[in-house]
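User: quick one, sequence for these C-alpha coordinates?
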Protein backbone atom coordinates (compact mmCIF):
# COMPACT_ATOMS: atom_id res chain seq x y z
CA UNK A 1 0.00 0.00 0.00
CA UNK A 2 1.32 3.40 -0.92
CA UNK A 3 1.26 5.95 1.85
CA UNK A 4 0.42 9.61 1.44
CA UNK A 5 1.23 11.72 4.46
CA UNK A 6 -0.97 14.50 3.13
CA UNK A 7 -3.84 12.07 2.55
CA UNK A 8 -3.44 10.69 6.06
CA UNK A 9 -3.41 14.20 7.53
CA UNK A 10 -6.59 15.17 5.67
CA UNK A 11 -8.43 12.02 6.79
CA UNK A 12 -7.25 12.46 10.38
CA UNK A 13 -8.32 16.11 10.38
CA UNK A 14 -11.77 15.17 9.04
CA UNK A 15 -12.21 12.42 11.65
CA UNK A 16 -11.13 14.67 14.52
CA UNK A 17 -13.32 17.52 13.28
CA UNK A 18 -16.31 15.14 13.09
CA UNK A 19 -15.72 14.05 16.69
CA UNK A 20 -15.28 17.64 17.88
CA UNK A 21 -18.50 18.49 16.08
CA UNK A 22 -20.59 16.00 18.03
CA UNK A 23 -18.92 16.81 21.36
CA UNK A 24 -19.08 20.59 21.10
CA UNK A 25 -22.88 21.08 21.32
CA UNK A 26 -22.98 19.52 24.81
CA UNK A 27 -20.36 22.02 25.95
CA UNK A 28 -22.17 24.88 24.24
CA UNK A 29 -25.44 23.91 25.98
CA UNK A 30 -23.63 23.81 29.31
CA UNK A 31 -22.25 27.33 28.90
CA UNK A 32 -25.55 28.78 27.71
CA UNK A 33 -25.07 28.98 23.93
CA UNK A 34 -28.20 26.97 23.20
CA UNK A 35 -28.88 28.40 19.72
CA UNK A 36 -25.42 27.49 18.45
CA UNK A 37 -25.62 24.09 20.17
CA UNK A 38 -28.91 23.32 18.43
CA UNK A 39 -27.37 24.13 15.05
CA UNK A 40 -24.49 21.80 15.90
CA UNK A 41 -26.92 19.01 16.80
CA UNK A 42 -28.88 19.61 13.62
CA UNK A 43 -25.77 18.78 11.56
CA UNK A 44 -25.78 15.24 12.97
CA UNK A 45 -29.53 14.61 12.75
CA UNK A 46 -29.35 13.07 9.24
CA UNK A 47 -26.88 10.39 10.47
CA UNK A 48 -28.23 9.57 13.95
CA UNK A 49 -31.59 9.38 15.73
CA UNK A 50 -30.08 11.44 18.60
CA UNK A 51 -32.24 9.78 21.27
CA UNK A 52 -31.00 11.40 24.49
CA UNK A 53 -31.77 8.22 26.44
CA UNK A 54 -29.42 6.29 24.16
CA UNK A 55 -26.60 8.83 24.19
CA UNK A 56 -23.58 9.46 26.36
CA UNK A 57 -23.72 12.60 28.45
CA UNK A 58 -21.14 15.36 28.57
CA UNK A 59 -21.54 18.33 30.92
CA UNK A 60 -24.98 16.88 31.77
CA UNK A 61 -26.08 17.17 28.15
CA UNK A 62 -26.44 14.31 25.64
CA UNK A 63 -23.93 14.09 22.82
CA UNK A 64 -25.18 14.85 19.33
CA UNK A 65 -24.99 11.16 18.43
CA UNK A 66 -26.06 7.97 20.21
CA UNK A 67 -23.92 5.36 21.99
CA UNK A 68 -23.44 3.30 18.85
CA UNK A 69 -22.55 6.24 16.59
CA UNK A 70 -20.18 7.69 19.20
CA UNK A 71 -18.44 4.32 19.43
CA UNK A 72 -18.22 3.96 15.65
CA UNK A 73 -16.64 7.39 15.22
CA UNK A 74 -14.26 7.09 18.17
CA UNK A 75 -13.03 3.61 17.23
CA UNK A 76 -12.64 4.61 13.57
CA UNK A 77 -10.48 7.53 14.69
CA UNK A 78 -8.51 5.39 17.17
CA UNK A 79 -7.64 2.88 14.43
CA UNK A 80 -6.81 5.79 12.13
CA UNK A 81 -4.44 7.21 14.76
CA UNK A 82 -2.78 3.80 15.10
CA UNK A 83 -2.62 3.22 11.36
CA UNK A 84 1.00 4.37 10.88
CA UNK A 85 1.94 1.37 13.04
CA UNK A 86 -0.80 -0.98 11.83
CA UNK A 87 0.06 -0.49 8.16
CA UNK A 88 3.17 -2.63 8.70
CA UNK A 89 0.89 -5.64 9.25
CA UNK A 90 -0.23 -7.22 5.98
CA UNK A 91 -3.81 -7.70 7.21
CA UNK A 92 -4.24 -3.94 7.28
CA UNK A 93 -3.13 -3.31 3.68
CA UNK A 94 -6.40 -4.14 2.06
CA UNK A 95 -9.64 -5.71 3.09
CA UNK A 96 -12.10 -7.30 0.69
CA UNK A 97 -15.55 -5.74 0.84
CA UNK A 98 -17.04 -9.13 1.75
CA UNK A 99 -14.87 -9.22 4.90
CA UNK A 100 -16.29 -5.92 6.05
CA UNK A 101 -19.46 -7.81 7.00
CA UNK A 102 -17.54 -9.50 9.83
CA UNK A 103 -17.29 -6.13 11.54
CA UNK A 104 -20.86 -5.01 10.80
CA UNK A 105 -22.71 -8.21 11.78
CA UNK A 106 -22.44 -7.69 15.59
CA UNK A 107 -24.06 -4.28 15.25
CA UNK A 108 -26.87 -5.63 13.09
CA UNK A 109 -27.48 -8.55 15.45
CA UNK A 110 -27.54 -6.24 18.48
CA UNK A 111 -30.23 -4.15 16.78
CA UNK A 112 -32.27 -7.02 15.29
CA UNK A 113 -32.28 -9.10 18.48
CA UNK A 114 -33.51 -6.07 20.40
CA UNK A 115 -36.30 -5.39 17.89
CA UNK A 116 -37.34 -9.07 17.90
CA UNK A 117 -37.34 -9.16 21.69
CA UNK A 118 -34.65 -11.85 21.84
CA UNK A 119 -32.71 -9.60 24.18
CA UNK A 120 -32.67 -5.97 25.19
CA UNK A 121 -29.58 -4.17 24.05
CA UNK A 122 -27.85 -1.77 26.38
CA UNK A 123 -25.45 1.13 26.25
CA UNK A 124 -22.66 -1.44 26.61
CA UNK A 125 -23.85 -3.72 23.79
CA UNK A 126 -24.48 -0.76 21.49
CA UNK A 127 -21.04 0.63 22.31
CA UNK A 128 -19.21 -2.67 21.80
CA UNK A 129 -20.94 -3.37 18.50
CA UNK A 130 -20.21 0.22 17.43
CA UNK A 131 -16.52 -0.10 18.34
CA UNK A 132 -16.25 -3.28 16.26
CA UNK A 133 -18.01 -1.64 13.30
CA UNK A 134 -15.95 1.55 13.49
CA UNK A 135 -12.68 -0.35 13.68
CA UNK A 136 -13.71 -2.48 10.71
CA UNK A 137 -14.72 0.55 8.69
CA UNK A 138 -11.31 2.10 9.37
CA UNK A 139 -9.48 -1.08 8.36
CA UNK A 140 -11.47 -1.04 5.13
CA UNK A 141 -11.48 2.71 4.45
CA UNK A 142 -7.94 3.84 5.25
CA UNK A 143 -6.15 1.69 2.62
CA UNK A 144 -8.68 2.75 -0.02
CA UNK A 145 -8.27 6.41 0.99
CA UNK A 146 -4.48 6.06 0.83
CA UNK A 147 -4.66 4.52 -2.64
CA UNK A 148 -6.80 7.43 -3.83
CA UNK A 149 -4.34 9.96 -2.43
CA UNK A 150 -1.36 8.09 -3.84
CA UNK A 151 -3.03 8.08 -7.28
CA UNK A 152 -3.79 11.79 -6.87
CA UNK A 153 -0.17 12.49 -5.89
CA UNK A 154 1.10 10.50 -8.92
CA UNK A 155 -1.25 12.40 -11.21
CA UNK A 156 -0.12 15.76 -9.86
CA UNK A 157 3.53 14.70 -10.09
CA UNK A 158 3.01 13.47 -13.66
CA UNK A 159 1.32 16.74 -14.63
CA UNK A 160 4.20 18.78 -13.16
CA UNK A 161 6.75 16.59 -14.96
CA UNK A 162 4.98 17.09 -18.31
CA UNK A 163 4.71 20.84 -17.73
CA UNK A 164 8.41 21.08 -16.94
CA UNK A 165 9.45 19.33 -20.19
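Assistant:
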Amino acid sequence: MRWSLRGYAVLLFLALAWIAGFLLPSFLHAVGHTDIALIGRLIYSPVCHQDAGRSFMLFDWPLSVCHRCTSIYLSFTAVLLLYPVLKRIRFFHSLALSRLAIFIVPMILDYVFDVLGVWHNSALSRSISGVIAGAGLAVFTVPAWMELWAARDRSISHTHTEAAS
